[in-house]
Design goal:
307 residues, D-Maltodextrin-Binding Protein, domain 2, five-stranded mixed beta sheet, disordered N terminus
Length: 307
């Protein structure tokens, strides 16, 4: 029997049978590259092809998305793996159904920066200084903790300030903060304004790991296995397209989120399937730096059919 190529198999998985009833999906995501696969899928017609109508809500706070998923207002949400680890520790029944954006040290999209005229050049220079992250007790603070630790500096010797990425460039220039861990597209803007990179904090977690994931409740995944399977296939196809069409995907990202491409903006990498080894590093780092009490196997977060 002749084998179908992988792309043909994916097309079969996504195709809705003729005359099939349309299903509406309510999806919550953040206005960032890491959660943009749904927007690419909409413009590529992938949801429609699979028999879905989608209503996507873009929220800045992952906690608001989680609350809506838990309440059933959203069928599917997108969040950082570290946040899902916290939910797991508190017995909130979320399960990952597809990967979101991934970090690769080959194309870092988040960096630790200082002002152009700053005297700070290494980790030890930050002792007693103020470092901005977009959220305390989050993936960004975990990464800076890990980077300081890896460079022989105790994380508690540095003062952390919670500050939106969009405000960090001005805060650096004015001297309000001494350094900031910042992601694209704000990173590109800051570098154009003269900021300097002094470290790659995500490398201290791993050179290759999953930053975010698409999730739902365990009950929803159990009751709708076909929807979960099709959604995962759609995210895989949309992510693969975005990886090789960065100019086109940047235009779609700006269309839906108003995130402007600076022209030098580094783009997030998408992976096609859940791999425990890519999810485990952030869970382990979350435990090491006090976000959760203890680590656990990454597969505990996966929907049953994906374990």
């Amino acid at each position: 029997m002749k084998r179908l190529p992988a792309i043909a198999l994916l097309a079969l998985a996504l195709a809705a049978p003729a005359g099939a009833q349309t299903t509406t999906l309510h999806i919550g995501t953040t206005p960032t590259d890491t959660g943009a696969q749904v927007y690419y899928a909409i413009d590529l017609g992938l949801f429609k092809k699979a028999g879905f109508e989608v209503e996507v809500s873009s929220l800045n706070a992952g906690t608001a998305i989680a609350t809506a998923v838990s309440a059933g207002s959203f069928d599917i949400g997108q969040s950082a793996v570290s946040s899902l680890a916290v939910a797991h520790e508190h017995n909130i029944p979320f399960v990952i159904i597809a990967p979101g954006g991934a970090y690769s040290s080959k194309v870092p999209t988040s960096e630790l920066i200082v002002a152009k005229n700053s005297a700070v050049t290494r980790a030890s220079d930050l002792v007693g200084k103020v470092v901005a992250v977009n959220a305390l007790k989050s993936i960004t603070s975990i990464a800076v903790d890990a980077w300081l630790d890896a460079n022989g500096v105790k994380p508690d010797s540095v003062k952390f300030l919670e500050l939106p990425f969009t405000e960090t460039s001005i805060a650096l220039t004015s001297g309000r903060i001494d350094a900031a861990f910042i992601s694209e597209p704000s990173l590109g803007v800051a570098l154009q304004n003269g900021a300097r990179i002094i470290g790659h904090p995500y490398d201290a977690i791993s050179h290759d790991f999953l930053i975010s994931a698409w999730y739902t409740t365990a009950d929803y995944a159990k009751a709708h296995p076909d929807i979960v399977r099709k959604f995962a296939a759609i995210m895989a196809e949309a992510g693969a397209w975005a990886n090789t069409h960065q100019t086109e995907s940047a235009a779609i990202l700006q269309k839906y989120t108003k995130v402007e491409n600076t022209g030098t903006m580094r783009r997030i990498t998408y992976v096609s399937r859940l791999v425990p080894a890519q999810v485990q590093p952030l869970i382990d780092a979350s435990a090491k730096y006090g976000i959760i009490e203890k680590t656990f196997p990454a597969t505990d977060l996966f929907a049953p059919g994906l374990r």
